[in-house]
Amino acid sequence: MKAAGRKPVSLPSYRARRWSLVGILAIAALVLVWRAVDQQIFETDFLQEEGERRHLRVVEMPAHRGMITDREGEPLAISTPVDSVWANPRVLSPDRRGLEPLAKALQMKPDDLRQILARRSDRSFVYLKRRITPDTAAAINKLVKERKIKGVGLERGYRRYYPGGEVFAHVVGFTDMDDVGQEGAELAYEDWLRSTPGKKLVLRDGHSTVVRDVESIQAPEEGKDLVLSLDRRLQYLAYRELKIAVKQHKAESGSVVILDVRSGEVLAMVNQPAYNPNGSKAGRPGRFRNRAVTDVFEPGSTMKPFTAAAALETGRYHPSSMIDTTPGYLQVGKNRVRDHHNLGVIDISTIIRKSSNVGISRIALDLTGKQLWGLYSGMGFGESTGVGYPGEAGGQLTPYTSWARIDQATLAFGYGISVTSLQLARAYAILASGGVKRPVSLLRVERPVKGRRVISKETAHAVLEMMESVVSRDGTAQQAAVAGYRMAGKTGTGKKSVSGGYSEDHYLSLFAGVAPVSDPRLVMVVMIDDPRGENYYGGLVAAPVFAKVMSGALRLLNIAPDDMKGDGVRLAAARNQG
Q1: First-to-last CA distance in the chain?
Q2: What domains can be seen in the chain, in order of their start residue?
Q3: Which CA distances in Å does 196 have to 62, 179, 284?
Q4: In the predicted model, what is the mean pLDDT of the chain?
Q5: 321 catalytic residue (yes or no)
Q6: What secondary structure letter does DSSP report for 401?
Q7: pLDDT given at position 22
Q8: What would the mean pLDDT of 406-428 be, rounded to a whole number?
C-alpha cells in the first residue's frame, strides 16, 4: 500500500564540478608540459650554468720547489711529482667490502682507515695517505675504477728528493710533508726556494671527481734554484775519511770544514753522525745538527798561532825572539801551566812547533789584555760567521776587562774561549790570505770578494811559516804531511769541559791547516770529539784525516805541487809505509 501524498526525491547534478576539475587538471598538465619544454629547450644554458655553479670548485695547481745544486750544477735537492690519496668521508661508503681492499692497497689496517673517516665524517675532504709511490698510485687508481668506489681520488703534488743522501744532509737539510724547509739550506733559503701554487676553476661530478678544467685563475710560480758553494767531489771525500776516523777511534762525533782562501766559500762541510734526509726523521736526538756551525768547543792549542800573531803585531816580538820556558811549568797565582817536559829557552817558532803552553803563556802575559782581545776579536772569535745557517753559534770570547791573569794565560792556548769549526776555519783563512778577513759563504761566489785587513801581511806570513814547521819531522803533526806540497797547520788536544772542571779522560782532537804554503788556496779544520781508541792526540787522530782529504782535494782542484823534494814527500812516504 503506497503512502499517500509522498513526492519522489531529485538528486543534485555534479557535471559542472567534474568538468571544472578536469579543466583544472588539464590546465595544470599543460603548464607542466610547457614548463618542461621551456626548461629543456629555451632555458638549457641557464640551467646548465646553475648546475655547474653548484659543482664548480677552485683547486690548486702545484708548482715544484727550486732545485739546490752544488757549485758545478750537480743536483743536491730536487722535486719529483707524486700522488696523494684523498677521500670524501660523506661519500665514501664505510662498508667492509669497499674499505678492506682500499686499506690493503694503502697498506693500512681497515680499522685505522675507518677511524680516520669517522673522525672527519663532517668534512668533504681528507688525506688518506700523502706522497705514495707510483706503484701504489696505480693500484689505487685501478681499484677505484674496477670496484667503482665513490669518494676516493688522487691528487698530484711534489716530493723532495736528495740524491746526495747523508753526505750533504747537514748542509742541505730537508722539508716537511708540506714541502716547507725544516733544516739546513732548505730552511735558511725558504723564501727563495718556495713555490707558489696556481689556481684554476674545475668542474666536479657528484663524486667530487674533476671532469673538466673550466678556467685558469692564477698561473703556478716555481721556486728559484739555489747554487751552493760546496764541491760535490770534496764533500764525498771529506765525508768518507771523517766517517772512517770516527769509527776507527770510537769517537762520539766529528766535523770537517774546507774553505776557499780566496773567496771565503765553503767547499766542504761534513759531520758525524749523519742521517738520511730521504728516510725517516725519527731516531737519535741531535742527529740533524750541523755540528760544524752549531756546536762550540774550546780550541786548545790551535789558538797558539793567533797569540803569536798578537805578539808579532806589537813590533816587540819576532819569530826568533827567545822565551825561557824553564823549568817546564809556569806558576800563575794559585794555578800552574805545564808543558810535557822542560823545553828550556826557545824561540817563538819552536813554541809553535813544539806546542809549548808555558812559552805561549809567557808571551800572552807580557801583552795587555786589550792587545790580545783585539786580535782574537779581529779574527772573528766571539761572533758568528754570518754564513746564514740556522742555529749558528757565535762562540764565546769574554771582554778583557773581566780577565784574571790565569784567564789571559790559558786563553793563549785555547781554554776559556769557545769556537765552532767554521769559526776556526775562517780565522785560519785570515792567516792564509795574508791577514785579510773575507766573508764566509755557503753560496757560490761569482765575483772576487773584497776583504778587510786584520793583521799585517808580514805577520800573517811569519805565522804561516811557524805553522809549516809543525808539519815537519820535528813538529807535532808529521801525520799531516802531503807528498809534493808544503803544508802548514797546528794540532790541538784539549780536555773536555765537564761539570766542576775538565775531564781527565775525555778529549777533543783537532787539526787546522793550510795548503799549499807557497800560494795558499785551501784551509781545513778537522775536529774529532772524544776519541776512545788508543790515541787521542790531535797529531795522531785529526792530522791523518787532514792529510788524506787535503791530498785528494789538491789533486781534484788541479793545484800544482810546490815542494817535490821537501820534508813532505819523505814524511808522507813514511806514513804510507807505516
Answers
A1: 154
A2: 59-227 (3.90.1310.10), 232-276+290-577 (3.40.710.10)
A3: 8, 11, 34
A4: 88
A5: no
A6: G
A7: 82
A8: 97
